[in-house]
Amino acid sequence: MGLVVVLLLLALLVGGVGLFIEGLKWLLIIALVLLVVGAVTGSRFRSRL
User: Fold this and answer.
1) In a domain, 5, yes or no
2) How many domains does the chain have?
């Protein structure tokens, strides 16, 4: 019974770390997209001045 609890906790821990890393990956992708959009918009706005 103790082994089952340990394995369950280990699976939850590994799954949680995986979800955390997946979230960080998506956060990085969104940040890069916003950076590119901001750079394009800023250069367009600057060229009009």
Assistant:
1) no
2) 1
